[in-house]
Amino acid sequence: MESVYALMFFLGSITRHRPTDLLDALEGRYGAFIREFLATQPRQFVFEIACEFRKQEVSQAAVV
């Protein structure tokens, strides 16, 4: 979870202080990874926090 926080902090910092660097990163070698990370992590973060609070694994129920 610390690595997710660190990456989000880094992305937030370059968004604020060097927005052109973020645009370059999105167009560069790791652009697909960054886009996927930003698309999936907000929801994943909620589950990680829930696991920490409950001290057990928490998962989303399957839709039938």
Written account of the structure:
The chain has 64 residues and is mainly α. The chain has one domain. The protein is built from three helices and no strands. Helix 1 (2-17) packs across helix 2 (19-27) and helix 2 packs across helix 3. The longest helix has 24 residues, at 31-54.
Query: Roughly what fraction of the amino acids lie in strands?
Result: under 5%
Please mark out the parts with pLDDT under 50 across 5 or more consecutive residues, or reply none.
Answer: none
Determine Rg (CA atoms, Å). 15 Å
Approximate helicity band: over 70%
Mean pLDDT: 87
SSE class: mainly alpha
In whole angstroms, the N-to-C terminal distance is 30 Å
The shape is: elongated
How many alpha or pi helices?
3
Please summarize the sheet with the most strands.
none
Topology order in helix (H) and strand (E) letters: HHH
Number of domains: 1
Strand count: 0
Keywords:
single chain; about 60 residues; mainly alpha; elongated
